[in-house]
Write a structure and sequence with these properties.
2 copies of one chain form a homodimer. Chain A is mostly helical. Chain A contains 6 helices and 2 strands. The structure holds a DNA duplex.
Chain lengths: 136, 136
Amino acid sequence: MIKIGELAKISGCSVQTIRHYEKEQLLSAKLRSDGNFRLYDHADIERLLFIKHCRSLDLSLAEIRQLLTLHHSPMSQCDDVNQMIEQHIEQVERRIAELTLLNKQLKALRRSCTSKRTVEHCGILKQLNKAVSQSN
Amino acid sequence: MIKIGELAKISGCSVQTIRHYEKEQLLSAKLRSDGNFRLYDHADIERLLFIKHCRSLDLSLAEIRQLLTLHHSPMSQCDDVNQMIEQHIEQVERRIAELTLLNKQLKALRRSCTSKRTVEHCGILKQLNKAVSQSN
DNA sequence: TTAAAGTCTATAGTAACTATAGAGTCAATA
DNA sequence: TATTGACTCTATAGTTACTATAGACTTTAA
């Protein structure tokens, strides 16, 4: 059995993050030491690494909680897992599209001012203002 | 002079958002009615639309505050504005790269399970676990 | 005059942590 | 054995940009 600091080292998560996951019901220490320190075993390490891998895929804690539940209900259908991943992919793709558009706009903005003028003549601010008066 | 509800309509921001911007020192009503209602003029409308446009470019409230300050300091240099936009572009591009990688990983994961099996044999969960035991 | 709609302030909630305070525990050294 | 330093505990507040509520007050129109 290991204490939270060692679990943090092994997993690469911070101590606070592990405690946060416990609060969010993703991971719990089944045992405590005499002095009330959390004690973890090998299964906990695996569970935390699973969580960490899911987080690296930007799954939310709620989604991970769901996956962990499915994981331990052998009769449930893969479809639920598939659907979650599918929705997540769509979400990521929407965000990529948004950011790509944003990037274009920012680059157009950047082109509007390059020299060392005072703000009075700054093309960027002029552009930002122009957009304002247009939409007004 | 208009009240906050009308400013909200004109700008497309919610009433709470406008009050939030005031709290964040981006926009303030210089006048209040006898009954303590905020009163706005044309300059306030323009300022709010400027803020809204910047937000649509994902600039943070802190960045916008800085832009507004520069905006009203005619002696400051464009360089400050340029640098901020430059950094923002870099940040957006980093995030796009991250999400693109993420998307690839999620799609690989999706390919690992397609049929209606029970979770016991779910390829996605197997993949997620495999990653865990590899990194352990 | 009264009712509805609008506005006020203050506070809490959102997501996933991070950081702190103040107290208690553990392991090793003097 | 005492003490020091490192570790852990709980509880709470802060981060970002809002959104949503509660309870009270103001304005407007019928």
